[in-house]
């Protein structure tokens, strides 16, 4: 449920869409927003009865950045053009149509982008298989449940078909949803040729030029392959190739132990492969909270057919050819000296992703990328080489590098649409959850413990940490899946939730209660009173929040703006109730 405030026209943030200047009142939704997004100072009620607020300015200089490309057109083919039809572009397009914008989306490949076709969707199909295989292969697990199963096996092509069919189905659903809502899908590679002007077309065909009042760049990313690594798509592969599951090697090296590497290690070991991790940093899973990482290594790596080399670079990888295996040269990350040579059946390069922004024509509007990423401000507005905002141009998702997650791209796209339709909106990225779909899963939102301690030291406050185990949860024990931990990082002085991390059964589903709490600014002293069904895994979070020790003063802590907000809302409800009673009496 969203709480809304009605603002008088005098206090409305000026909109870039002239059609919205005449609308009054404007509703501003509190969903995943930081208070800074509104620049709220204090709420008051005007003589007319409307809520007014004073604001702190957040203006930035805007530059036309037209160069020699002429002036923007006076009339437009579309209200909004989106370059890229991945999850981010799709989310923006649907929200734009809901807001009444004439919308087009340009796609040079296939609808769905990386996530649907070469990323999170097909990988979850493979992980669903690995999860089933892992259960069936665990004699101890089956025996504990009183089950007896014969030796489990799999059909490689059948598994591959499952992943491919799922991607095709989701791709079709996305395409049909946009067509049904009237979004024009323009086929070809999009290039910005000037302010509010885009050309698109296929190789060998004449380009088409279209104009729009606002443009969103949503071109996503591609696998990053370091220098010295030769990818042949067969024995030295990226995640794009691995998802096709063209063969299951006896021994595969995975370069990188982040989300992608961990998930594929789960798949390959379940299907019978031996895995060797190659990690440049001194520990596996370097991007995770150290405590969660340590537990995950004990459960996901140590008992499985996985070994690892840390603190080394794979400086050269040669594909298998002429009867020879894949050869990997390892170099010490600190001394840069040769350390070892590995010979394996295959190598998966899982060293992250790089923005796909080449050929966008950014030079035509004086925009210079930073390591390939399009520079944007906190509202996804593109900035030119001089640090000025480029009017009517936005960039979302992997292409801007703020948070390389499909759902973050979609949230950013929705935020941009809110802005171009006259409602100031800023996404709180600390409220965006992330998950790794291993067995069991890992999920997180907000800050890790080291990040929280660093922030606390800089800003001068204390933090506390609460933990709870899945071993105390009835549903987890019923599933014979008691291995897991939930961790809460918070401020004991005011109850602010700084971060939540979960390792355990269905952690990716459980994290959203914490994510929504951070997005809505819910404090621990309030969420402690939430009721959870019993017996469910959600009680892991219930116990976690209840175990947090918050000082008594924080129960009385509330900002002046929030007190004003609730007081005025109470007055509004009382007035409505009074009018309804008068109506009934008459």
UniProtKB/TrEMBL annotation:
Per UniProt, the enzyme's principal EC class comes to: oxidoreductase
Q: Which UniProt keywords apply?
A: Chloroplast, Disulfide bond, FAD, Flavoprotein, NAD, Nucleotide-binding, Oxidoreductase, Plastid, Redox-active center, Transit peptide
Question: Disulfide pairs?
Answer: 115-120
Task: Mention any Pfam family matching this sequence.
Answer: Pyr_redox_dim
EC number(s)? Answer: 1.8.1.4
| Annotated Pyridine nucleotide-disulphide oxidoreductase dimerisation domain residues | 432-543
Binding of FAD: at which residues? Answer: 124, 190, 219-221, 398, 404-407
Q: Does the keyword Flavoprotein apply?
A: yes
Provide the active-site residues from the annotation.
Answer: 534 (proton acceptor)
Question: Where in the cell is the protein located?
Answer: Plastid, Chloroplast stroma
**Which residues of the sequence carry a binding annotation for NAD(+)?**
256-263, 279, 352
Q: Which InterPro entries match?
A: Class-I_Pyr_Nuc-Dis_Oxidored, FAD/NAD-bd_sf, FAD/NAD-binding_dom, FAD/NAD-linked_Rdtase_dimer_sf, Pyr_nuc-diS_OxRdtase, Pyr_nucl-diS_OxRdtase_dimer, Pyr_OxRdtase_I_AS
Molecular function (Gene Ontology), one example? dihydrolipoyl dehydrogenase (NADH) activity
A single cellular component GO annotation: oxoglutarate dehydrogenase complex
Report the domain of life of the source organism. Answer: Eukaryota
What this protein is reported to do is described as: Lipoamide dehydrogenase is a component of the plastidial pyruvate dehydrogenase complex (PDC).
This chain's protein is named dihydrolipoyl dehydrogenase
Origin organism is Gossypium stocksii
